[in-house]
Each structure stands twice: as structure tokens, then as C-alpha cells.
Design a protein that fits this description.
The chain has 209 residues and is mainly α. It has helices at 6-15, 17-25, 37-47, 52-64, 76-81, 84-90, 94-109, 111-115, 122-129, 137-146, 159-168, 177-184, 191-203. The protein contains 13 helices and no strands. Helix 3 packs antiparallel against helix 7 (94-109), helix 3 crosses helix 10 (137-146) and helix 9 (122-129) packs across helix 10.
């Protein structure tokens, strides 16, 4: 469960003096986990290669198509029945329509497995979810963080995390995989918390000079 515990702060601060400075000035709020796993994966696919604001706009338009009560999300069965053209009108590309409908079919066909997904190891979850066409490792990693609350996830393919590392560790250009691993491996077993600090520094207001 991803919470703001003293334990993870102590470990990260001790193992990484540069991150310790970030931890002192940034206060993270506890994550509100996305308990609807189908909704979580649709959200993750919507966010692929888009800004969070653009993805949220598309998702809001998509949900509005189903005329649900406030706060509700379509079931996999209802989602499959929705017209591709209407989903395209909401802003999804045809590729993402295909991928999201693949997810819907998967949830129907593998309902029991998804109900027990929290009992699987990180590696097993990645293997299971990436068997869905359109779901890659990054999407599976976001699912493990934001739905399952796994505490030791770092997505090396996430541009935001790479940019956060570049900013905080003063790399002149985007850090290489080797450079990132050298930093991030010291964060274990709390790499998710380190990731959240990297995302947070990107939206942190710049200090006036």
C-alpha cells in the first residue's frame, strides 16, 4: 500500500542524500488507489503519449457517452457495445479504441484472474497484462502503482521520471538507463515513493531568483 510513512522517508533519505533534500521540501499526499481495475487500465491507455489534462478530457467525453450516474464508469460489457465512431468522436484514436476494447474483452474472458491479480508477483502481473494487445510494460507498471499500491515500482520507460531525474541530479541531457539504475536501485524496496517525488518535482513551482 503506497502511504506516506516515516519508514520509506528514512530509507530513501539515508540511501540517497540528493533525494533527501527533495523529501524535506515536498510533502506527498497518500495515493487514492483506483479500485476499479478495468477503469484503471482504460485510464492508463488514455494517458499513453498524452498529457494528463488531454487524457482526462477524452475520458470525460467517453464516459459521458454512456449516460451514467456521476462517478460511475462503464462495465466491460457496455464498453464493448459502444460504437467505435462515437468513441472516436470523444477523442480516442482508432488504435486506442482497439486497445481499450481488447482490455474489455480480457476482463470478461479472464474475470477470475483479474479478481485475484493483487495476489500475483510484479513479474506475473506484467506477463498477464502485457498479453493484452495495446497494454505494454509501462501501462502494467502504472496499474501496479495506482491500483495495487505496490511500493517498489520504477518505470524506466516513463518520460516524466526520466525528466525528474535529469532535473534533480543535474544531468545536462536525459540520463541513460545505466545512470538511472545507478540512482534508483538504491531506493529499493521503496522505488514507488522515489518515483512519486520525481513526478512531484516536475510540477513544483520554480523559485524566483
Amino acid at each position: 500500500m503506497v502511504t506516506t510513512t516515516t519508514k520509506h522517508k528514512k530509507h530513501l533519505s539515508k540511501s540517497d542524500p540528493i533525494l533527501a533534500v527533495v523529501i524535506k521540501r515536498i510533502k506527498l499526499t497518500p495515493l487514492k488507489l483506483r479500485e476499479n481495475y478495468f477503469q484503471a487500465l482504460i485510464h492508463a491507455i488514455a494517458n499513453q503519449q498524452l498529457s494528463g489534462k488531454a487524457a482526462q478530457t477524452i475520458l470525460s467525453r467517453m464516459v459521458a457517452l454512456f449516460k451514467l450516474n456521476e462517478g460511475e464508469f462503464p462495465t466491460p460489457q457496455k464498453y464493448l457495445k459502444m460504437s467505435d465512431l462515437k468513441l472516436r468522436g470523444a477523442g480516442f484514436s482508432f488504435a486506442k479504441i482497439s486497445y481499450t476494447k481488447n482490455v474489455a474483452s480480457f476482463f470478461i474472458e479472464r474475470k477470475k484472474e483479474m479478481a485475484q491479480v493483487d495476489k500475483l508477483s510484479d513479474e506475473e502481473i506484467i506477463k498477464l497484462l502485457t498479453s493484452i494487445k495495446g497494454v505494454g510494460v509501462w501501462t502494467a507498471e502504472m496499474f501496479m502503482i495506482f491500483s495495487l499500491g505496490r511500493e517498489d515500482i520504477f518505470s524506466y520507460g516513463d518520460l516524466g521520471l526520466r525528466n525528474g531525474l535529469q532535473k534533480i541530479y543535474n544531468f545536462k541531457k536525459a540520463p541513460t538507463m545505466k545512470q538511472m539504475k545507478k540512482i534508483v536501485e538504491s531506493w529499493q524496496p521503496y522505488r514507488t515513493h522515489g518515483s512519486r517525488y520525481m513526478w512531484a518535482v516536475l510540477v513544483e513551482p520554480e523559485k524566483r531568483k
